[in-house]
Amino acid sequence: MSYLAEYKSKLVSANEALKAVKSGDTVNYGEFVMASHFLDWALAQRKDELNDVKIITTTCPFIPKTVEVDPEQEHFIYNDWHFSGASRKLHDKGLCFYIPLTYHEAPSFYERGYVPVDVALIKLTPMDKQGFFNHGTSNSMTPAFCDSAKIVIAEVNESIPKCLGGNRESIHVSEIDYIVEGDNKPLIQLPDLPITDVDNQVAELVMEELEDGACIQLGIGAMPNAIGSMIAKSDLKDLGVHTEMLVDSYVDMYEAGRITGRRKQIDKCKMVYTFAMGSNKLYEFLDENPVCAIFPVNYTNNPFVIGQNDKVTAINNAIEVDLYGQACSESSGVRHISGTGGQLDFIFGSYKSQAGKGLVCLSSTTTGKNGETISRIKPTLTPGGIVTDPRSINFYVITEYGKAMLKGKSTWQRAEALINIAHPQFRDELIKEAQKMKIWRKSNKLV
Q: Is residue 245 annotated as involved in ligand binding?
């Protein structure tokens, strides 16, 4: 049978394909902007026929129809490996559950059978002449859950960029059970986040840590965007990219001539990533671009792979940091905000890199619900706060007031370094708390 004939033999309507889902099944949606609203809508139509269907996704950027039609969770139970803004809103209502994850381990959960998948719902580019569909902008654990799934249902969407590997960036028609031709709706674009003066102040301090030939990883948010903008306007040379997430600022840095990858030790001259989210500028840049290489996350985020490149500079955000050096990037107390994601992978991996640096960046304060100013450097994490980077792993912490390098520092030295970069309004209070915690010496002096 020719590939085209096999394609046509598997081509069905969305409603016909979704009949494959049975009560009690686990259904894995695509990741990030590759989650299919089209297949989700079709599954939602079967609500009254199904019970206890467990849905798993990764940072789905929209509120699924399956959740909207079943607020009592009698038919669908929704779970996310790493929260989007949509998942966060649903979690606040008790309609979404987080699955704890150290990101580079994700494919092994499927391979070892810890997460059995009955049906995979994915979104792909059109088939090429060799019978392959491309996974588009998300490759992190998609190949693993498709391998694990008993049934694979694919929506074909002509708007998806063809993202070159790397490896496992494609799936063959022979590995797919049902094919659905979707509505070709364009990929969701991330909105521009406003960059504050504090973001720029922190970014300037980060720029001091960057060198020619550094291999960079940027997290998501306004502060990494500010850093990317400054890099694009700088005179830095031959930067490399080994990251989990590719965003618009990498396009700006590449087009400004800052990124060449020529000094990388592995994947030389390639911008390595595992998923991408951004604007159409990014998606158009990725389409069939051999400069970019998309890999599964057990490669991109493996700390021992990360460490093979020199001068890895990993730049990430946090919600708060305590005086022991523990960084919380996932919750505000018990309110879930995000997930571990790749932050721990890259902070750990950067230390394995020759001359590497793992930077946790945050503003020194935030504004509370009642308009009060709250320190983000705290004696201890807010009760219920999740430790993303343990004190034994955390490397650098940066606020607009300076940098604290924590490696090799005792508890009192950490307390001093972190209080030095707290907002001045809170330093005396933090010293008193450090004294109560027995992590302050009388001879300590703040700069």
A: no
Examine the domain organization and report whether 329 and 281 are in the same domain.
Answer: yes
Q: What is the CATH number of the domain that holds 177?
A: 3.40.1080.10
Same domain, 338 and 220: yes
Residues 161 and 204 in one domain: no
Residues 228 and 368 in one domain: yes
Q: How confident is the model at residue 86, as a pLDDT?
A: 95
Q: Which domain holds residue 390?
A: 197-436
Q: CA-based angle 389:221:217, to the nearest 5?
A: 60
- Are 141 and 229 members of one domain? no
Q: What does the pLDDT look like over 84-109, one tens digit per residue?
A: 999 999 999 999 999 999 999 999 99
From the list 31, 244, 330, 400, the catalytic residue is 244
Residue 347 annotated in ligand binding: no
176 and 201, same domain (yes or no): no
pLDDT at 170: 98
Torsion of CA 66, 188, 108, 344, to 10 degrees: -120
Total count of domains within the chain: 2
Q: What is the pLDDT of residues 146-198, one digit of tens each?
A: 999 999 999 999 999 999 999 999 999 999 999 999 999 999 998 888 899 99
Please, are residues 160 and 124 in contact by the beta-carbon 8 Å criterion? yes
Residue 342 annotated as lining a ligand binding site: yes
Q: How far is CA 98 from the centre of its chain?
A: 14
223 is in an annotated binding site: yes
pLDDT of residue 220: 76
Predicted pLDDT of residue 447: 64
DSSP state of 125: P
Alpha carbons 135 and 196: distance in angstroms, whole number? 35
Q: Is 68 a catalytic residue?
A: no
Dihedral sign for Cα atoms in the order 398, 403, 404, 408: positive
Task: Identify whether 84 is part of a domain.
Answer: yes
User: Annotation-wise, does 341 bind a ligand?
Assistant: no
Residues 69 and 94 in one domain: yes
The answer to whether residues 221 and 146 belong to one domain is no
Inter-residue contact 254 to 223 (CB < 8 Å): no
* Contact (CB, 8 A) for 306 and 312: yes
